Amino acid sequence: MRRYNIDTVLIWISAVSFTLFGFGCFFSRVMRQEYDRYGLPKFKNLIGFLQILGALGLVIGIQIPWVGQIASIGLAILMLCGVGVRVKIKDTTKQTLPAFVYMVLNAYLAIAIY
């Protein structure tokens, strides 16, 4: 029972985070500047949409596991790409670490929970 509770908390942490990140892509001036810095301004809205969709999938996955697994795999891949972009533009480890942590978190959710 305890494992389920911890995993549910991890699902909600990821889902809330990606909801905020996703909406930030649409409404945040800082996020617009970041995507310009990444060299990906044309993809900002698509990535935001995928983040919100992934967050929704994680929550639905609490009741329908295969949906959660697909969502967590998608978010892990999205964050793998994010890590790659940050390495390519020579961001610091501190700047790259959040994307790496979310990649590992969602890979864990995909493998261990679903």
Nutshell version of this structure?
The protein has one domain (2-113). The chain is 86% helix and 0% strand. It contains five helices and no strands.
Descriptive account of the structure:
This protein has five helices and no strands. It is an all-alpha fold and 114 residues long. The protein has one domain. Helix 4 (65-88) packs antiparallel against helix 5 (93-113). It starts with a helix and ends with a helix. 23% of the residues are buried.
Kindly list the characteristics that best describe this protein.
single chain, 114 residues, 5 helices, globular
**Share of helix among residues?**
over 70%
The parts where pLDDT drops under 50 for at least 5 residues are none
Distance between the termini: 16 Å
Number of helices: 5
Task: Give a count of the beta strands, DSSP E runs of length 2 or more.
Answer: 0
Gyration radius (Cα, Å) is 14 Å
Order of helices and strands: HHHHH
Strand content: under 5%
Identify the overall geometry: globular
Overall SS class: mainly alpha
Query: How many discrete domains?
Result: 1
Main β sheet profile: none
Give the overall pLDDT as a whole number. Answer: 95
Transmembrane segments: 12-31, 43-64, 70-89, 96-113
Membrane topology: Multi-pass membrane protein
Organism: Rubritalea profundi
Keywords: Membrane, Transmembrane, Transmembrane helix
